[in-house]
Design a protein that fits this description.
Strand content: 15-25%
Number of helices: 9
Radius of gyration: 27 Å
Helix content: 10-25%
Number of strands: 18
Shape: globular
Largest sheet: 5 strands, antiparallel
Structural class: alpha+beta
Order of helices and strands: EEEEHEEHEEEHEHHHEEHHEEEEEEH
C-alpha cells in the first residue's frame, strides 16, 4: 500500500524515495515508467528513477512540514551569452561555495518562484561576493558588479559604492503626497488612519464628550490597523461586445491555463473574417483602445506622486501596473498582495504577473471607460478523457495556439 501506483504519479506530486537514505522528493517529469525527481529538502535532482521506488509519505510531520530547500539565483548578474550558464560559471560558483562552510546571503528580489540572492564570501581576508566573482572571471555581466574606477582599497563587494540612499528614498512608494514617513504610526504599522479618531474612545470604548466630540468615534475590526474606507474602481463603464454566434472572427490567445480555460483578445474586433482584407490583417489600425494605451503610457511615464499607492490594493480593485514583460503600463486587477508585491491579472492581456508595489499606480477614472479586452474562453464541445486535462494536452494546445 505504501508503494506508488503509476496512475498516481503526476508532475508536482510529493513522494518518499530511498537513495542510500530516505528523501522527500517532488516529481518534475514522467516518461515511460521513469521519473525525474527533485529533493524538496536538499534541492538535488534524481534522474531516471523507476516509479516502483516511490513511496507514499507517512502521515504526520513528514507530510505537514514544508520543503526546506529554497530555489535561488544570483541576483543582478546575467550570463555572457544571455541564454544559459557555461560550464566555467558552474565550476567557479561551485569553487566559491563548496564545502561545509556557511555563507551569508542577502535576499534582494523574487522572480518566477526563485529568490535572488547576493552571496557573501571571504577570500584572503577580504570580503567580496560570488556574484562579483563571476563578473571578474568573465562568466557574467552586471551593471552592479562590474568594474568600478575609484573604488577604495577595501575591495568593495559591488554594493556599497552603488547604493544611493537619496535615490532609494525618492523612488520609494512612501514618497507621495498622502504619506508622512516621519510619522510614528507610519513607521510602526506602515499606515496611519486618515480620519482623526478620538483617543479616549479608542482606549476606553467611550468618550466623556459624547456626541459633542469633534473626533470620530469608531473602532477598527480585530487585527486591523484602521477603519478607513477608500474609493476603488472595480469595473469599466462599457462592456466588451462579443461576436454573434456562428460567426468566424480572428482571435489571439494570450494566456492558457487549460483547453477549458484560456484568454483571448479580438485584434480586429468582432468583424467577420470574410469582411477582412489581407491589408487589414497585416496593418495596425488605430483604435479607441490603442489610443487609450498610448495616452496611458504618456500619462503614467511621469513620476506623478498623487498616483502612488499609499497602501496595499484591495483584491478585485483595478489599478495600473508596469509589466516586466514589455515594460509598458497596463490596466490590471489586484488578486493578492504581501510584502511589497502584488499579484495582478492584466485585464486587457489575460495574463497573471507578480509585480512590485513601486510599479503600481492608481487607475485614473478616464481609463476605466473602455471594456476589458481579454475574454475567458474554452474549446467548445470537447472535454478531457479523465477527470481533468493532463499536462501534455495543455502543452499541445499552447503550441497549437
Amino acid at each position: 500500500e505504501q508503494v506508488a501506483r503509476e496512475v498516481e504519479v503526476a508532475v508536482g506530486s510529493i513522494w518518499a524515495v530511498h537513495q542510500k537514505a530516505w528523501y522527500r522528493v517532488e516529481v518534475i517529469s514522467v516518461s515511460y515508467g521513469n521519473v525525474s525527481l527533485r529533493s524538496i529538502d536538499y534541492g538535488h535532482v534524481l534522474l531516471d528513477v523507476d516509479v516502483s521506488q516511490l513511496n507514499h509519505l507517512p502521515p504526520g510531520l513528514a507530510t505537514k512540514l514544508p520543503g526546506l530547500a529554497v530555489r535561488c539565483h544570483l541576483a543582478m548578474v546575467k550570463p555572457v551569452q544571455e541564454e544559459t550558464w557555461g560550464k566555467l560559471a558552474i565550476q567557479v560558483l561551485t569553487g566559491c561555495l563548496e564545502g561545509k562552510e556557511l555563507h551569508t546571503a542577502m535576499f534582494v528580489e523574487r522572480k518566477d518562484r526563485s529568490v535572488g540572492v547576493v552571496v557573501m564570501m571571504e577570500q584572503q581576508g577580504k570580503f567580496s561576493t560570488a556574484n562579483k566573482r563571476l563578473v571578474e572571471v568573465g562568466c557574467a555581466v552586471s551593471s552592479v558588479f562590474g568594474d568600478h574606477t575609484g573604488v577604495d582599497d577595501l575591495e568593495d563587494s559591488g554594493l556599497v559604492n552603488d547604493w544611493d540612499p537619496m535615490a532609494d528614498d525618492f523612488n520609494s512608494n512612501t514618497n507621495n503626497y498622502m504619506t508622512n514617513d516621519d510619522d510614528l504610526g507610519i513607521a510602526t504599522d506602515g499606515y496611519k488612519s486618515k480620519d482623526k479618531v478620538c483617543a479616549f474612545y479608542l482606549n476606553r470604548g467611550r468618550c466623556y464628550k459624547g456626541a459633542y466630540c469633534e473626533d470620530k468615534h469608531s473602532m477598527p475590526r480585530e487585527g486591523a490597523v484602521t477603519a478607513d474606507q477608500e474609493e476603488v474602481i472595480i469595473a469599466t463603464v462599457d462592456l466588451l461586445e462579443m461576436p454573434v454566434v456562428s460567426t468566424t472572427v480572428l482571435v489571439k490567445v494570450t494566456w492558457v491555463m487549460s483547453p477549458s480555460a484560456f484568454y483571448i483578445t479580438f485584434p480586429h474586433g468582432i468583424r467577420d473574417i470574410s469582411s477582412l482584407q489581407q491589408l487589414d490583417i497585416n496593418k495596425r489600425h488605430p483604435t479607441m483602445f490603442s489610443n487609450m494605451m498610448d495616452s496611458m503610457q504618456m500619462f503614467y511615464q511621469g513620476n506623478c506622486r498623487k498616483l502612488f499607492m499609499d497602501s496595499l490594493p484591495a483584491p478585485g480593485s483595478l489599478l495600473v501596473t508596469r509589466s516586466e514583460r514589455d515594460k509598458l503600463w497596463h490596466r490590471a486587477m489586484a488578486r493578492d498582495s504581501s510584502e511589497g508585491e502584488v499579484e495582478v491579472f492584466f485585464v486587457d492581456l489575460g495574463q497573471v504577473e507578480v509585480v512590485t508595489l513601486s510599479n503600481t499606480r492608481k487607475l485614473e477614472s478616464c481609463f476605466s471607460v473602455l471594456p476589458f479586452q481579454a475574454s475567458l474562453a474554452c474549446l467548445a464541445r470537447v472535454e478531457p478523457v479523465g477527470q481533468g486535462w493532463c499536462k501534455e494536452a495543455t502543452t499541445l494546445f499552447k503550441k497549437l495556439s
